[in-house]
Amino acid sequence: MNMNGTPLAPEPTSTGPDMELEHRRAAIAALGHELRTLVDATVRTEAAPDTLHGVAAGVRGLVARLTGRRRTRAEIPDVDEFPGGTRMNSPVTGTGSPVAPPLRVTPSDDDGVVGRCVLGIAHEGPPGYGHGGFSAMLLDELMGWACAAEGTPAMTVSLQLGYRGPVPLETPLLVRAGVTARENRTLHVTGSIATEADPTRPLVTGEAVFVTPNPDHARNLFPGM
Ligand SMILES: CCCCC/C=C\C/C=C\C/C=C\C/C=C\CCCC(=O)SCCNC(=O)CCNC(=O)[C@H](O)C(C)(C)COP(=O)(O)OP(=O)(O)OC[C@H]1O[C@@H](n2cnc3c(N)ncnc32)[C@H](O)[C@@H]1OP(=O)(O)O
């Protein structure tokens, strides 16, 4: 199973096309890391309006430097592995994403998968706590990884959450997900979010149904697959 690594990808160790891929991923992750720092600084700053206008102009200049071909809707980038692997710009796991925490996914000691991340002020709902929608995103994503880890990539058709306690920001979090039952193309998945410091007290629990699209449907949905 492919894992999402640390914010800055490791130094390339392979040769040829693999090295080029690692270089591209490292560059995407490096930009993502700086953008997340910018996002965090942006949502925290109390700088004067003149400073904010100056920074906005600087950012406009940076956007103009991202020239060349842009990927089209539904195109699968060559740095990605789909389905069930690295997604550099995923809003949840993507090390290149400005908004992803990003969630780092590893296999669990027991069945299923584990995700680790820290939410920041950019992910805030109630002051000091994570937005409930972000909790849903973390769980939905990790549940998808649990399906993929079993060799059956699938899409969410239903997701039910219990919010038992607020999820603290700037606190290491432990997300868990595992497939509990399957019937043909339908998978039942459960998951939870807790803090690393208190892993047995779930703050959010989830139950979901995932379905692996039939092959014709999958080809229609993901023509680039
Ligand atoms: C082999 C190709 C694999 C293709 C790759 C597929 C997915 C890969 C995607 C990501 C995997 C990678 C990593 C995971 C990362 C992130 C996870 C994020 C997850 C998401 O963010 S994902 C976005 C939100 N998600 C949607 O956008 C789905 C909208 N949906 C549909 O596009 C269709 O729904 C579809 C295509 C899923 C199935 O369509 P279909 O035509 O293939 O299948 P069909 O309709 O026949 O249903 C088959 C059986 O599911 C049962 N069923 C249906 N709905 C149900 C419900 N609500 N509750 C309980 N059971 C339900 C039926 O009752 C039937 O059961 P039965 O067979 O027993 O009668």
TrEMBL record:
Keyword Cell inner membrane among UniProt keywords: no
Compartments, as annotated in UniProt: Cell projection, Ruffle membrane; Cytoplasm; Membrane
EC number(s) from the headed UniProt entry: 3.1.2.2
Region of interest (Disordered), ranges: 78-108
Catalytic activity of the protein: tetradecanoyl-CoA + H2O = tetradecanoate + CoA + H(+); (5Z,8Z,11Z,14Z)-eicosatetraenoyl-CoA + H2O = (5Z,8Z,11Z,14Z)-eicosatetraenoate + CoA + H(+); (9Z)-octadecenoyl-CoA + H2O = (9Z)-octadecenoate + CoA + H(+); hexadecanoyl-CoA + H2O = hexadecanoate + CoA + H(+)
First-listed, main subcellular location of the protein, grouped into a coarse class: membrane
Family to which this protein belongs: Belongs to the THEM4/THEM5 thioesterase family.
Protein name: Acyl-coenzyme A thioesterase THEM4
Source species of the chain: Streptomyces graminofaciens
